């Protein structure tokens, strides 16, 4: 009879032991995970855009079928945009036709620490147009998207400086917002590039 009475007590004691052991295990695991996460600092990555330049590729003849007024308007945009990029926002449709492509360059990702994965890039601009492609070093990613363009990258960036280039079609934006999604943090940039024109 005493043995029968001891069985429920033994079961209860064993259950309490398992519960405490499980709690202790998971608690210790969480503590170790948190300590490891705290011990590994975010990757040392910086984005430089001080020399960012938006170069419009313009095709002659200028608005041959558009009339002299259109030619005059486009000439006015080209002559003043270098000093006042905001004029692009009010550029006539003829400007989009003759300067239909633009390349944004002079953006650098500087990785001063361990390897880091660039999971994606989000590019935002204003005034219409499309992002045709994005290029990181010698790797090209076809995009063909309006703003905001979200591009999956999934590339490991080693230590050193990496170049970024973007090609747009029919764009008149004077400002850009680019977000770099890394595997351990996010870098956000907003800038107004210098404006250049190149006849091709």
TrEMBL record:
Domain of life (superkingdom): Archaea
InterPro entries: Signal_pept_SipW-depend-type
NCBIfam families: cognate_SipW (TIGR04088)
Protein name as it appears in the record: SipW-cognate class signal peptide
Organism: Thermococcus thioreducens
């Amino acid at each position: 009879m005493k043995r029968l009475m001891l069985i429920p007590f033994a079961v209860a004691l064993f259950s309490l032991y398992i519960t405490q052991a499980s709690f202790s295990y998971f608690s210790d695991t969480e503590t170790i995970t948190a300590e490891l996460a705290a011990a590994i600092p975010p990757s040392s990555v910086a984005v430089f855009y001080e020399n960012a330049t938006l170069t419009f590729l313009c095709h002659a003849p200028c608005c041959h079928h558009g009339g002299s007024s259109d030619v005059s308007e486009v000439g006015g945009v080209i002559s003043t945009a270098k000093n006042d990029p905001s004029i692009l926002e009010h550029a006539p449709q003829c400007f989009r036709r003759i300067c239909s492509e633009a390349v944004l360059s002079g953006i650098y990702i500087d990785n001063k620490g361990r390897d880091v994965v660039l999971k994606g890039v989000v590019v935002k601009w204003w005034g219409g147009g499309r992002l045709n492609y994005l290029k990181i070093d010698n790797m090209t990613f076809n995009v063909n998207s309006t703003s905001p363009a979200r591009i999956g990258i999934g590339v490991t960036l080693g230590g050193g400086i990496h170049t970024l280039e973007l090609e747009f079609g029919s764009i008149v934006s004077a400002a850009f917002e680019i977000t770099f999604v890394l595997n351990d943090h996010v870098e956000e940039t907003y800038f107004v590039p210098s404006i250049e024109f190149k006849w091709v």
